[in-house]
Design brief:
The complex is a heterodimer. By secondary structure, chain A is mostly beta strands. In chain A, 0% of the residues lie in helices and 50% in strands. In chain A, strands 2, 4, 5, 6, 9, 10 and 11 form a 7-stranded mixed β-sheet that branches. Chain A has a 4-stranded antiparallel β-sheet with strand order 1-3-8-7, with no helix packed on it. In chain A, a hairpin with a 7-residue loop joins strand 9 and strand 10 (102-103). Chain B has no helices and 11 strands. Chain B has strands at 4-6, 11-14, 19-25, 33-38, 45-50, 54-58, 61-66, 71-76, 85-93, 100-103, 107-112. In chain B, strands 2, 4, 5, 9, 10 and 11 form a 6-stranded mixed β-sheet that branches. Chain B has a 5-stranded antiparallel β-sheet with strand order 1-3-8-7-6, with no helix packed on it. Chain B is globular. The N and C termini of chain B lie far apart (37 Å). Classes of the chains: A mainly beta, B mainly beta. The interface between A and B is medium-sized, with 26 and 24 residues.
């Protein structure tokens, strides 16, 4: 099992460009999450999906959209990237009701 | 007030000593508590979970929970240089979608040989 996978690993964008971060899990988990991590800020929840077909905003959703494509895949889209979105992005998954989350390797995004 | 608070550190301990990491939380309804370890440039990995008041031991790690004081801690005995990492405390928040975790900002631990 690969667990949680994320693509790409690194990305550099110019201000105003768009991109989609991909996440997939092979653990048959119902719930999936997107976080961003900035120095000294810990992990902040952007969006989450408790189950296929549902999505909800987290702590810092502005500037992002998500799609729960199926049970395995949960993508994060930046429509018009801004330098403030420079961060490391982590995807995670969990079985509904267990709270234990498993993380992907992360995407390091720089917006110039 | 932040929902989950940790001292950011860095916390420096000599090799072989006990490292004590602390976390407080604000939601009295929280039922699940987690400690994640994160090496520089890597993703968080779960090292301990605790759900009931008291102590839970796993090898050199002991998690302690006191719900009345809204306090959870992690003790690392016989600290090794390989324990040098950032430790993240996470607490569950229940909502109508099932729940989510709120993370503290992390405590950086440095174990000196």
């Amino acid at each position: 099992n690969a667990g949680v996978t994320q693509t790409p690993k690194f990305q550099v964008l110019k201000t105003g460009q768009s991109m989609t971060l991909q996440c997939a899990q092979d653990m048959n988990h119902n719930s999936m999450y997107w976080y961003r991590q900035d120095p000294g800020m810990g992990l902040r929840l952007i969006y989450y999906s408790a189950s296929e077909g549902t999505t909800d905003k987290g702590e810092v959703p502005n500037g992002y959209n998500v799609s729960r494509l199926n049970k395995r895949e949960f993508s994060l889209r930046l429509e018009s990237a801004a330098p403030s979105q420079t961060s490391v992005y982590f995807c995670a998954s969990s079985e509904w009701g267990t709270d234990t989350q498993y993380f992907g390797p992360g995407t390091r995004l720089t917006v110039l | 007030q932040k929902e989950v608070e940790q001292n950011s550190g860095p916390l420096s301990v000599p090799e072989g000593a006990i490292a004590s990491l602390n976390c407080t939380y604000s939601d009295r309804g929280s039922q699940s508590f987690f400690w994640y370890r994160q090496y520089s440039g890597k993703s968080p990995e779960l090292i301990m979970s605790i759900y009931s008041n008291g102590d839970k031991e796993d090898g050199r790690f002991t998690a302690q929970l006191n719900k009345a004081s809204q306090y959870v801690s992690l003790l690392i005995r016989d600290s090794q240089p390989s324990d040098s990492a950032t430790y993240l405390c996470a607490v569950n928040i229940r909502d109508n979608q099932g729940g989510k975790l709120i993370f503290g900002q992390g405590t950086e631990l440095s174990v000196k040989p």
